[in-house]
């Protein structure tokens, strides 16, 4: 697989890991962005991603027409009474309404590392993405975070995003 096809996914994963927690909006060099639990823009982004998830899940897991890098963002509860939203790759349907996959980046607020297996429910899904023709589709939470990023980083990410349907 050519790196050019992976570049949008790599940039977005590296820059826009985030936690949806009670707290202040902060960004550091790790790419981890902390968002208040009552952020209306993030709430709207998650709601739209969940609303559209069922229309893309089955087609994207079958890699239609060159679509690659199907990932889901999943909310994982942690000990600090919050939820860390983290990208999951290699997603498949589990049993009894569950999904499974592998962490696509290192968690910040819970134990684990890139590549670790994870099982989750549809209720934990907060976003989805796939790359087609060099553009990232979906990414509702990514779009909601753009104003919180350094303008130069935001511009690079925005250029890699496909228009929303």
Note the main attributes of this structure:
globular; 4 helices; single chain; alpha+beta
Q: How much of the residues is beta strand, in percent?
A: 25-35%
| Cα shape | globular
Round the mean pLDDT to the nearest integer and report it: 79
Order of helices and strands: HEEEHEEEEEEHH
N- and C-termini, Cα separation: 27 Å
- List unreliable stretches of 5+ residues: 1-30
The computed structural class is: alpha+beta
Count of extended strands: 9
Share in helix: 25-40%
- Quickly count the helices: 4
* CA gyration radius, whole angstroms: 15 Å
Report the sheet with the most strands, covering strand number, pairing sense and barrel closure.
9 strands, mixed
Could you walk me through the main structural features you see in this protein, from its secondary elements to its overall organization?
The structure is a single chain. Helix 1 packs across helix 4 (151-160). Helices cover 31% and strands 34% of the residues. It is globular, with a radius of gyration of 15 Å. Strands 1, 2, 3, 4, 5, 6, 7, 8 and 9 form a nine-stranded mixed β-sheet that branches. Strand 8 (125-132) and strand 9 form a beta hairpin. It has helices at residues 3-15, 40-61, 140-145, 151-160; strands at 17-20, 26-27, 32-35, 68-78, 82-93, 98-103, 117-121, 125-132, 135-138. The protein is α+β, with helices and mostly antiparallel strands and 165 residues long.
